[in-house]
Design brief:
This protein is α+β, with helices and mostly antiparallel strands and 330 residues long. It has 9 helices and 13 strands. The strands form 3 sheets. An 8-stranded antiparallel beta sheet has the order 1-2-3-4-7-10-11-12. The chain has a 3-stranded antiparallel beta sheet with strand order 5-6-13, with no helix packed on it.
């Protein structure tokens, strides 16, 4: 009898222990699933930098916006034409500020692209850009004598054709330092991607269709959708940034070698490269070089791809792309 009474007391205790074990296991499972769900969440951060906007989409347990803004502030403090306290602004005022390793890195890259494109890319083109009315919107077009003078005196620097791309690279580096492996960084149209998007697919980036008479609602009409996987992308184009004076069209891209706005068939150049600063610089250079010369440069750089939109002899919109480039039509 004594053993039976003891057993009667043990059965409820055993049931309690079993139920409690299952409850704790379920709680642990729910907490683990919640943690995994949070880990798999995609963050979406936005802000302003370099006189434009940025968006960053990335997979992380929580927002890294403060770190992103800090990385961009460093780049802005070196290269922004909109920041009067930046290193480049000080140089353009005739001062001699201390140049950081970041500044030297981008400066050397700019010089490399300049040499590789026979001067089609040039960070000292700012005075010519301003003279033609795209910097401070001068009312008077420069004379031939003024253009010749500005060609000889290059005392100002403009990193706008490489700084946005470099900013994307720095944000990407920041994310990777925090262990992020799936992300897309976009600053004013320049992009860096890695891994997968929130739909667990490769990142897809649209290329706008060139149209100088497009209505505002048509501004986002796409020419192509590129697959940009573990790569950087930058686009440069003339078709929406121009003005007419005296019945003549002046594009915003200035040829640093001649001092005059470019006039050729190439309307848009999209470049894919391992680094966004590189893609940014070469996209600008290609808009100066034109279709044929741009393709010659690409032959020397198998690490780069391009999607070029131009008008043919009959004025029809036509595209050329690197054979290995993956894209779809909208």
């Amino acid at each position: 009898m004594k053993n039976k009474k003891s057993l009667y007391w043990q059965v409820p205790l055993l049931v309690f222990l079993i139920v409690g074990t299952f409850y704790i296991a379920r709680q642990n499972r729910n907490e683990r699933l919640a943690a995994e769900q949070q880990q798999n969440a995609y963050q979406h951060d936005k802000g302003e930098v370099f006189g434009t906007f940025y968006t960053v989409t990335y997979q992380a347990p929580s927002s890294l916006k403060s770190s992103i803004d800090e990385a961009l502030a460093h780049v802005d403090g070196e290269f922004s034409m909109f920041n009067e306290h930046s290193t480049v602004a000080a140089i353009n005022r005739g001062e001699d500020p201390l140049r950081s390793s970041m500044f030297e890195e981008v400066y050397r890259l700019a010089q490399q692209v300049t040499a590789d494109t026979d001067g089609a890319f040039d960070i000292t083109v700012a005075p010519l850009v301003n003279a033609w009315g795209f910097g401070f919107k001068n009312e008077q077009l420069p004379t031939a004598a003024q253009v010749d003078s500005l060609l000889k005196i290059r005392n100002q620097m403009d990193f706008s054709a490489i700084a946005k791309g470099y900013g994307c690279d720095m944000v990407a580096r920041c994310l990777e330092e925090h262990g992020v492996t799936n992300y897309m960084v976009e600053i004013g149209g320049e992009v860096v991607t890695r891994g997968q998007n929130p739909q667990q697919q490769q990142w897809k980036i649209g290329v706008s269709k060139p149209s100088e008479d497009a209505l505002p609602q048509d501004a986002n009409e796409l020419q192509a959708i590129l697959t940009v996987s573990d790569a950087a992308m930058a686009t440069s184009g003339n078709y929406r940034n121009f003005y007419y004076k005296g019945g003549r069209k002046y594009a915003h891209t200035i040829d640093p070698r001649t001092g005059y706005p470019v006039q050729h068939e190439l309307l848009s150049a999209t470049v894919l490269a391992p680094r966004c600063a590189v893609a940014d610089a070469y996209a600008t250079a290609f808009m100066v070089l034109g279709l044929d010369s741009a393709r010659q440069v690409l032959q020397r750089h198998p690490e780069m791809q391009a999607y070029l939109i131009y008008t043919d002899a009959e004025g029809r919109l036509t595209e050329w792309h690197s054979p290995s480039l993956q894209f779809t039509n909208p």
